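Quarterly update from the structural biology core.
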Amino acid sequence: MKHFILCALTAVSVLIPAIQVSGQDYIVSSGNLSLAVSAPEGGRLEFLYFGPAAGPEDIDMLRESGALYGKSAYPEFGVDNVTGVKALAVKHRDGNLTTDLVVEDVLQDSKPEYDLLKVRLKDRYYDFHVSVFYKGWKNSDVIETWTEFENLEKKPVTLIRFDSGCLYMRRGDVWVSHFSGNWADEARLTEEPLNPGMLVIKNMDGSRNAHFSHAEIMFSLDGKPQENHGRTIGAALCWSGNYELRVSTHDNVNHLFTAGISPDMSQYTIDSGKRFTTPPLALSYSDEGLGGVSRNFHRWARNGMIHNGWGTRDILLNSWEGVYFNVTEPGMKQMMEDIASMGGELFVMDDGWFGEKYPRNNDRTSLGDWKADPAKLPDGLESLTDAASENGIKFGIWVEPESVSRISELFEKHPDWALQVKNRDLIFGRGGTQLLLDLCNPEVRDYAFNVIDTLLVRYPGIAYIKWDANVSLWNYGSTWLPDDRQSHIYIDYHRGLESLIKRIREAHPDVVIQSCGGGGGRANYGVMPGYDEFWVSDNTDALQRIFIQWGTSYFYPSNAMAQHVSADRNHQTGRVLPLKFRFDVAMTGRLGMEIQPSDMSAADRKFAAEAISGYKEIRSLVQTGNLYRLVSPYEGKGVCSLSYIDDSRDNAVLFAYKLEHFRNQTVPMFRMCGLDPEKVYRFRELTVPDGESPSSLDGKAISGRILMETGIAIPLETEYASRVYVLTAE
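Predicted structure, tokenized:
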């Protein structure tokens, strides 16, 4: 494991003045990554360098070569070039909209997990302080940066723009990779060159922030993005609410990247004596292309940015597409028996199980009334947890604790708990009745905590929570926040959400919790430290899932990605795909099923059991191994391929898919990456249907050098053909 070093700083556990590296320069480093700033006392904080690991002598040489940036590390409105892009804009109570920051002092902290650099800035005139932080993780090639504002003026100060951090890149043939989409079409990859002007990526959903775009981005510094070659930078904003990523190219030298909470309708007032802290912006660098940056982020995520990050996840059956709202006690018990018979380990009862006065028979009622419907579950939840135990599997349940239906007992008792705007009609979401609860309000957060805590305490057999969020923040008003603080809603809602998740995690550290946002709307590193996984998309069509999962994998590890096998005729697209193809696609992440087993033929159930057994052989490698994306579905070659390899490079699993089918179609050779060229790998094929023989590669032994330099011909003759191979070094 590579180690971060905060140059010339000793290992201590309290903040002390930092020792200067070279005059006024400071470096935060790892074995592969460094960031350098200049922080002269009484002068400007300047960004100098971000890239491959560099020491003090390298910084001196880079200065001589003219490669250092020497640009404002946190540009504020009001000084220097007032027309340029700014990371900070503040309104003082006397109406002054400018800020003029100089370095006050530099402090550092070193602990076993990380090294921290803190540069404290102060306005020349006002008693307003800004601290810029840089944290280098010793177990991951990732540096985080964020900002803290402290108001020591006598009156409140208003933040107008308050980015988490910024980064400079030299102009040249720089390309950007980012993600957009919609419900059931998340994480669509876009690659484009950075041209003069401004690229802005933002979200204004209010509740969920990953349906229409993602708060993550990659920069390829050597031309069109490549998977395993080229200098590449990745950035991820660790925030669950509205955000804004900006790339400004307004001079002939640099690109300026800034990222933070979206300032739209979010001016934030800091009272005298109070502080405001932005979410971290995580940065990484690799000369191994997009894939190298992905592997850096996956390691960082597993080391703390997702809950139980190095753990493997259970194989589950979710009830939603099998029964939708038609939940019954006999039906749930039958599905448990079915998944247990196929080798599954967990059954999750989705929406439709609750409501007494207002039974949850559709999406128009009952949110907030989290008690089992006695007509559907006459023996209650305990009978289901007992049934799961009798079948040798675990039990999970669906909740949506942030929401309320207008037709519900909760709304009748506490209509003021819903977000709502004075003198305006309510705007309803899903089902025409759904509203968001006001998580700005601590009483509402207590209620939401008690919903989940009560379920888990009363029914200790519940091992898994599917936490859904199906509505945007449309009613921009809070009965709890004061009239002059209504612009805090977009921020305080998510601060409330994060504190709620943290409280639940502290009370129930061993329960597996999935983040679901009407599909992939809650895939972000603002909340993932409290969740074990997220639902990648409501679209379970295996062909489209290849594209969705491909984009998602740029920043998220496979054990966090919930991927399910669905029905013969998919419920979202109507496409009919082979069961083998559906399994082979879902097996690249956390495997599950979204299907009614009683509708499956005996032959399909047998194949499913064999596929699940095969997945158990490779589960640890897939869920915690190093991902190498080999052939992108976006390249238009009609095929796609990826692999996972362990740290020893002794074991790998290779996936290949045929996406198009034409007569005399050209199928390219598949070249692997990340193997040991000196080792020889034996191939063994998984998921071979009954009555079929393994492909010609099964049993072959091929050197890592040949696999990476020349490649292999993978037999993909039929429509929607797919192959899964286990490679073992001899």
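Confidence is low (pLDDT under 50) at residues 1-20.
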